[in-house]
From TrEMBL:
It comes from Flavobacterium sediminis. This is Glycosyltransferase 2-like domain-containing protein. Residues 47-127 form the Glycosyltransferase 2-like domain. InterPro entries: Glyco_trans_2-like, Nucleotide-diphossugar_trans.
């Protein structure tokens, strides 16, 4: 069976929206009117309403990006789902690219696509189709790159870890943890060299300083690799030094912050 556009659903996480005007900014040529869209609106006041048959709105009074993603996964109905934020701008042919990727690789469960930032490619992606992402690629994943078959959610209890993501104790890493949990359950995760959207502005990891980045990244590494997390901390130190992101005199402080981050995650996960 070949997937068609009516098999696709866009899962949009947003906050405190009063109308659906943001969809016009996200989709060129009003494409959202011909695609199923599920909007999770986290609000502390007015509820968002939809007057469109193809747009389902779920209002939520709890905050946190991972909470929003999990609600979207629970409420999704179509066979293929694509995660989205309310500030992305989709390519006019993004749906065709997505459907083609799954149709030409029927055994793939999750596909990572490319995105640009303000029109520029900021990540180092594989130049060709990648059948199975390695751990370095998994750790570099952003949620807006991810499309997957809904069956991977129905067949497992894999969800976004609500200790991670914007609004949680650790504001980064939720997408890498989500994909790593799927990878550990032997789902096939591939990479497609196609750009499907532009994401203006900086990512969360770019907006925090080095010390807080190591605090948070250590928790992510421990959540994924457990006692091997130390190896990944030292790999990060090595590459950050090599790329000039940190200086050698910063290393003791960064290691200290990494240890604190791991301890904080352990403490939180016991609550």
């Amino acid at each position: 069976m070949l997937y068609q556009q009516n098999d696709l659903e866009i899962l949009v996480s947003t906050m405190n929206q009063k109308d659906l005007g943001f969809l016009y900014r996200m989709f060129p040529d009003d494409l959202w009117q011909s695609i199923s869209v599920l909007v999770v609106n986290q609000t502390d006041g007015e509820e968002l309403q939809s007057g469109f048959e193809n747009v389902k709105v779920v209002n939520c009074y709890e905050f946190g990006l991972s909470k929003s993603r999990n609600i979207a996964l629970q409420q999704a109905e179509k066979d293929l789902v694509l995660l989205a934020d309310d500030d992305v701008i989709f390519e006019h042919d993004f749906a065709a690219k997505l459907l083609h990727a799954f149709n030409k690789n029927p055994f793939t469960d999750v596909v990572r696509f490319r995105y640009t930032q303000n029109g520029k490619q900021i990540k180092k992606y594989p130049q060709a189709f990648c059948q199975d992402l390695n751990w370095f690629q998994v750790l570099d994943i952003s949620s807006v790159e991810l499309a997957f078959k809904r069956k991977v959610i129905l067949e497992t209890n894999v969800r976004f870890d609500e200790n991670f993501g914007i609004g949680a104790c650790f504001p980064i890493g939720e997408e890498a943890i989500f994909v790593s949990d799927l990878k550990n359950k032997n789902f096939r995760i591939s990479g497609e060299p196609e750009v499907i959207l532009d994401h203006p502005g900086e990512t969360t990891s770019k907006r925090i300083n080095s010390e807080m980045l190591y605090f948070n990244q250590s928790a992510v590494f421990f959540r994924i690799f457990r006692n091997k997390y130390v190896l990944w901390i030292f790999l990060k130190l090595f590459f950050d030094l090599k790329q000039g992101k940190i200086g050698i005199l910063q290393i003791p402080k960064l290691i200290s912050q990494a240890i604190k981050g791991k301890k904080q995650y352990v403490k939180n996960s016991r609550l």
